[in-house]
Every structure is written in structure tokens, then in C-alpha cells.
UniProtKB/TrEMBL annotation:
Keyword entries, A-Z: Heme, Iron, Metal-binding, Oxidoreductase, Peroxidase, Signal
Ranges where the DyP dimeric alpha+beta barrel domain occurs: 68-224
The protein's name: Peroxidase
Family statement drawn from the similarity comment of this UniProt entry: Belongs to the DyP-type peroxidase family.
GO molecular function: peroxidase activity
PROSITE patterns: DYP_PEROXIDASE, TAT
Amino acid sequence: MECSPSPHPARRTVVRAGACAAAAFAVGGGTAAAAPAVAAGPPAPAAAPEAVSRAAAELPLRADASTQGDILAGFRKDHACLLFVHFRDAGQARRWLGALLPELATTDQVARFNAEFSKARRLRKGVDPTRMSVLWAGISLTYPGLALLADKDPFPAVRAGSTAEAFAEGAATRAEALGDTGPSAPDGWLFGASQDEVHAVLTLAGDDARRLAEAVERHERALDRAQAAVLFRQDAATLPDALRGHEHFGFLDAISQPGVRGFDAPDPQSGTTVLGKPGTRLVPAGEFLVGHEKVGQRPAGLPVWATGGSFHVVRRLAQDVAGWWDQLGECLDRLKRSGAAPADADTRWLASRMVGRWPGGAPVATCPAAERIPVPGEDIDGPLDFHDDPNGWTTPLFAHIRKSNPRAGLTLAPGRPPLPAGDVDARRIIRRGIPFGPPLRRDARGVVDGRSDDGSARGLVFVSHQADLVEQFEFIVKRWTNERDFPPARHPVTGCDPVIGPASPAAFESPSADGGRATTLAFQQFVRTEGAVYAFTPSVPALRALAAGKLDTAIEVHRGTVLRPGDVLDAGAVRLLLDTDGDLVLQDDQERALWTSGTTGKGVDAYFSADGELRVRAAGGRTVWSSGTAGHEDARLLVRPSGDAVILAGDRRLWRVAAPGRGGGAR
């Protein structure tokens, strides 16, 4: 991460140089040049130490210096560059990674910067401060990249259907299931077509295009010295002028992001939403960062090296902007003939229903007749909820925002009540996309002029972070956006997402004298995948270990995790599981029991508590077996490829079970 005065006006800036300097030193080295503060009003008084401690206790993830930035605290820069890297020599790659470590942005740095920026912007009544700029850096590694750096397989075992399997196979192998066929098939990709090619994705983002370009060149030289090859360079930038913050189809992007427990302040009235954003639910941090509590306290089942990191999906999505807008005219004519669209509706009216929002971001659900531009600071999703629109008469069921996040409007069959909003919390992802390529000319209403299409490459660099590739990213794509029969059991079927999904007929449902009607529209595909990578964004400690050629592949059971019957934590040589009879069992790789808790017929789950105790619980929460290790808040439960399960407090062993001949039995 670099901070320095900017010679040109910058869009994304910080108020005080001290914030940059503190951020630079927080990664364990590095310096930052001092720069004049922005005259944005009187300086805020320094927070009292007790206030800082209280804030850190209430929102500990904001002070996290071990996780990389851009996962929970978005870089949010106007200019970005992603370098897709192939290493030719493991030793050189480790040395390069070690040299990169001081430059990597961490959550606390980015969160502090963004808070300062937001405060300065409020003081300027919505105008971005200038005078200073910042450059962020982040690194993620693919499965082959991790294996190369560590000289070992990153997973002791890969279970069918798991996120480890998806990660090991890579995006190209799983392309067909995700709809990446035909023009989107891997054989036409610019990067990621071969699982063995890309080892790392280096993300650089900054306020100033010139300074970012200089940083990219510097990193390219460093990679060349390390005998690494840059397979592809993806430059990207926010669109200019009135389209700033929008994607190429012309709609404000990345509006709806999940709140994260421990990072975003909760509203004391609800406890389930973000303070000041009543439309944003708080989701457990373990859905985005491995090692924290997940929805339902489910086990992550991942190795130690994954703790504090996040799976990183990168997709280059080309957009045929003129084609997408051109199809609207024919579809709108059909809706008008059927009486499903007002006589004075224009293509912008239909485009907004395909997205679910007007171009400026306001949901169609809350202002169906005409667009209302949100005022600065307004939570435009505050009243957004689809539970009172089960048939999609206001926001179509195929609308992009409903297909990708049904909120409280998901019904399993027509006529049934919608599921609670919390039932889809485990499907949320954090998106960090940014456009690439020049925009097309638009008229005064923002409608694209198809004649201005110059054939330039344009689209979106889709980026998402999630703790489970299968249950989050892939589930959304396969079961929601690309699934014609979602929401399920409707006649005619709803159709695929008309913004990012494949070509399909879609049912535009609307009220009628006899209760309702469906007008079938034919939506074509105007978004094409041109590259994709599955990577992982490790924590700084994990990267430091990798730079030394080390990778801890023991399976970690994080505090607050609950094992339910059928859950298996597989370390290859041994696996810990709760069987269907309620017995906690350590098995070898032939499924022979090496140790059991003796709770057959009694246990309903196994819980690893915040103070380090593993216990099997009966119905009602009564403990029927315990490891006897309570009172250790730093305890870790590991299932190790060496053949044992162990609870450690630091280097001290509190409890252990192992195979015979390896000190078997409970201790």
C-alpha cells in the first residue's frame, strides 16, 4: 500500500496523511510520505483510549490487521489493474511474495481510510475530497499456486461436492455447469482456460491513473526478476461523468452488499440490520472470512491455512450494450399489445424491470411509476422487500436483483408464504466489480445510442468474496440466476436472469381482470464470459508462512462450530465426524473407528465452545461428553493429517485422540 500527495485531482482520497502513515506501518514495515491535510473543516478530536477499546471490542473486524483488505473493507477505487501471474520457479516466487508482504493492504487500513474518506465527503456535502491519493495492493492464489509455493497439496483430502473440490478443479473445469458454454466456453477465454496456468492474481487499485500505471510497471518488473510471467493484464476503471458508479448497461452497480457481523455496526432497534441501513441484513462473518461463525454455526471443514482468508472469484464479463438495449424495443411492443405495459412506457421502463432498479439505483418495488433519484446518504433499499409481491407484478420474478438475492420474497411454490429473509443469508456474497472499456454514447434519458458502438471491448470485471464457492457463488449462478424454474413450480416458468443469464423465454407476470396473466418474452444473452479464475485470498500470516515454503493443512474446527449428524472433518489419514447415532468418532482412512465419545443414542450435536471445550450435547443442550478443556479462549481444535485430533492452547496440548501406535486414546 502506498500513500502520497497527488499532483492531479483524485476521486478517492483520504483526509489526513497520518491515516496513511499508520496504515503503512501496520503491515509490519514500510513507510509513507507525509502530505498536507485537506482543509475540510476543524479536525476531529482524538478519541479517548477507552472509546477506541470499546469500538474495537464491539466491531473487532474493523481493527483486524491480519486479513487482507477488499474482502470486508472494499478498495472502492476509480482505477484498478489485475495481473494474472504464472510462476516458473517456486523459490523465486516465495522470495517475490516475501518482498510483496509489506505492500499488502489489510482490513484495518482500508476500513480506516474509507471512514476518513466518507467523513470528509459528508463535510463537503457529497463532493469527493482531493489533494491525496492511495494505492492498495492485494494478492490471491489459485490451487496450483498454493501447491507450488508450499510444495505440497493444499488439502489433505478433497470431499466430493465440497468447496475444496470446486477450488481444486478451478473455474474452467466447472464452466459448463455455470453456463459458460458456446461463446463463453473456456477455449475462448483470455485467462484461466487452463487450470495450471494462473498461479496468482495481483490486484492493484488507486485514485490516480498515472500513479497506478507506474505501480503496475514496477510490479511487472519485480515479477520479471522473479522469473514469473504476467499471462494477462486487466485494466479497469469507473465510468466517467454521469455514469460514474454505473455498469455499462447504465445501471448503478454494487448497491446491495451484505452487512457483516463484527464489522458493520448493528442497529440497536433491530439487531439484525446495519445501523443507518434498515434494508441491509447483518450476516455472520464466517460467510465471507473463513474462521468466523457461519450461519447455523456450520463447520468450514477447511485447513488452517484458510483461516482468515476468503475464496476469490474473478470473471471478465463482456457486455454487448447496444444489443441488450436493442432487444428491449421488441419486448416492449409485445408487452404493450398484451396490455402488460403502459402505453407510454419506453425501453427504460422495461430495462428497469429487467434489472429491478431504475438506472439511478432506486428499486422499482418502491417507485414503480417513475424513477426517483435518491438523496445523498439515503438507504434506498430500506423499504425494499419482495414479500408483498409474490407474483412479480411490480418487480418481475426474473428481475436481476430478485434472481440474485430473493430477500424475503422467495416462495417454494405459488400460494405458499415466503421464506424469512434470514433463510438466504448463507447465499450472500461480497462483490467488488469494476467496469472495463469505454462507455457508449447515450441520449438525454440515458438510453444507449446503438449507432455509437465502435466495437471496443467493454464489460465488467466481476469480483466476489465468499467462504464457500459451492454454497454461495456457484449456488447463486446455477440454482438462481441461470435456472429457468426459479422461483420454482410456476407455470409458465419464470425464466433466467435477463441481465447476466443465458438466453431463455421469460414470463412477465401482470395483474388482469381474472387475477393475473403471463406474457412470454424472449430474452437473448448479451453478457459473455471471457475469462475466469477461482483463487483464495489468504491472511497475512498464511502468506508469511507460504513465503517460507510452509502450509499447515490440518483441518481447523473454529470456536463456535457445531457438528451435526453426518458432518465430517476429513484430514486424509483420519476424520472426525458425528455419526447418525450421535456418537463423536475419530476414524482412519478406511472408516475404522479409532476413538469414540461413547454417546451413541444420546448425542444430537457436538459443539466447540468459545473457551475451548469440545462437548457432545443431548437434546435440550445437556452435555453428555466433554473434552474437559474449558477455560482456554485461545484454544484450537485440529484434525491433523499426522493421524490425530487435538485441542491446543498455544503450543500446549490440552486433549488428544489418535490411532493406535500414535499415542491413541483420549488425553
